[in-house]
Write a structure and sequence with these properties.
With about 375 residues, the chain is of the alpha+beta class. The strands form 3 sheets. It has a 4-stranded mixed sheet. It has a 4-stranded antiparallel sheet with strand order 2-3-7-6, covered by helices on one side.
């Protein structure tokens, strides 16, 4: 592996920092308080090439790899992880599912709109009673001539209300059959396709999370992604890449919280000297810095293997698990270093603290990552 940061990554990081100062930092707390999903911001991010990072240039994307993708998500998340989450979900779930498994007509039809940020993408696997047990989903698609009729609902869907298109995995066979589910791409405005409850969340509040509802929603067979029965298998492969996304999101939170805590520790004085001079604080910072380094190395190893087309189920789960758990610990310590001020909204660490927890849950809980890792190492 090459541990050097590429010039492209450096340029991406610099452009995002400049963009964030103008378009994210001044508004992020208002978005957080009011749970505002700033759609226009994502159109602007699309113009910069960050809504189609992995999409080839032939389909209007940036044609970059996973090292660059980590940089995009990480740098955005260092400022506002809600925005980082939405960029990650758009890129790695909906857009990537069409890219990886769609046919040529589907790619030409939908990818340019998604890559440009003109359209926002959603992806639906989870249901109310089937979180980690996706194989027992209740949403069904029944064949009817040249169409399928979909009934049911998906829960905890990023961009569930504002998404212009959703890739959803629904049951076309028996419950529990890993080949009994199929992926469909469904555009907003399709009769019978609506949104339900928008979640009122602890953190990531500017990233919209809502239900997708299907009531006799008729979908033509040309909207099937891949083959009938392959939806669940496809989703597992998509989630492998998605774990890099959540790991990068976690890394951004960790770095943002750490940098805020480091800065504060040098400025805040007690007993006549900066609190960074006290071992109790300096050791916390040392642990934080080490966990960030370890998270970054795991993530870029996963990216290296993903770029080569190799399996990343084990290393991806390791990277996601470690980075997400580290982000919770680091955000917690950042609040502790700030003391009482860390509990107020005058400093950024309270938001990192609230946002971090989702990373240990979304796209496979820590426990599911341990299940994936243990199964693979015990083969």
């Amino acid at each position: 592996m090459n541990f050097e940061v590429s010039e492209t990554q450096k340029m991406i990081a610099e452009s995002i920092r400049d963009f964030a100062k103008l378009h994210i930092s001044p508004f992020m707390m208002d978005w957080d308080e009011n749970q505002t999903f700033p759609i226009k911001l994502f159109h602007k991010l699309g113009e910069m090439g960050f809504m189609g990072v992995l999409v080839p240039e032939a389909y209007g994307g940036s044609g970059l790899g996973y090292h660059e993708y980590i940089t995009v998500i990480e740098e955005i998340s260092k400022v506002d992880s809600s925005i980082g989450l939405s960029v990650a979900a758009h890129n790695s779930l909906c857009t990537n599912h069409i890219l990886q498994f769609g046919n040529e007509d589907q790619k030409k039809k939908w990818l340019p709109k998604l890559a440009s940020g003109e359209w926002i993408g959603a992806w639906g696997l989870t249901e109310h009673n089937t979180g980690s047990d996706a194989g027992n989903m209740s949403t069904t698609a029944v064949e009817d001539d040249d169409s399928y009729i979909i009934n049911g609902a998906k829960n905890f869907i990023t961009h569930g209300k504002s998404g212009n298109i959703a890739v959803v995995i629904v049951r076309t066979g028996k419950k529990g059959d890993s080949h009994g589910m199929t992926a469909f791409a469904i555009e907003r405005g399709t009769p019978g396709f609506t949104s339900g409850k928008k979640e009122n969340k602890l953190g990531m509040r500017a990233s919209e999370t809502a239900e997708l509802v299907f009531d006799n929603c008729r979908i033509h067979k040309d909207q099937i992604i891949g083959k009938v029965g392959d939806g669940f298998i496809q989703s597992l492969k998509i989630l492998d890449g998605g774990r890099i996304s959540i790991g990068a999101l976690s890394l951004g939170i960790s770095k943002g919280a750490y940098e805020a805590a480091l800065k504060y520790s040098k400025e805040r004085e007690q007993f006549g000297k900066p609190i960074s001079h006290f071992q109790g604080i300096s050791f916390k910072l040392a642990d934080m810095a080490t966990e960030i380094e370890a998270s970054e190395l795991l993530l870029h190893k996963a990216a290296y293997l993903k770029n080569k087309g190799e399996r990343i189920d084990t290393i991806g789960a390791m990277a996601k698990m470690y980075a997400s758990e580290a982000s919770v610990k680091i955000a917690n310590e950042a609040v502790q270093i700030h003391g009482g001020y860390g509990y107020t909204k005058d400093y950024p660490v309270e938001k990192f603290y609230r946002d971090a927890k989702l990373c240990t849950i979304g796209e496979g809980t820590t426990e599911i990552q341990k299940l994936v890792i243990s199964r693979n190492i015990l083969k």
